[in-house]
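Re-run with default settings, no changes from the original entry. Doing this only to confirm the output is reproducible before filing.
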Amino acid sequence: MIELKSKLKRWGNSFGIVVPQKAVKDEKIKEGDEVRVLINIKKESNALTEVFGVLKGWEIDTQKFKNEMRKEEEEASKRKWRR
């Protein structure tokens, strides 16, 4: 049994996957062979998209945001030196 990662592609009104050549050679299959495909579909996700995609359409003044971050950093630095 092989496990592979493949992109879903549209073929007419259907979708299909591409089996890499290495997997074909390893399993000794050729064009026209009947194969059984066991599928456990899990959409791959991009961590950055998950994090920043949530912020899509989020409107904030970037200069104001930077100023607030600098202020917080300065306050944290002052607290550190007071100890």
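Residues 21 and 34 are 16 Å apart (CA to CA). The mean pLDDT is 81.
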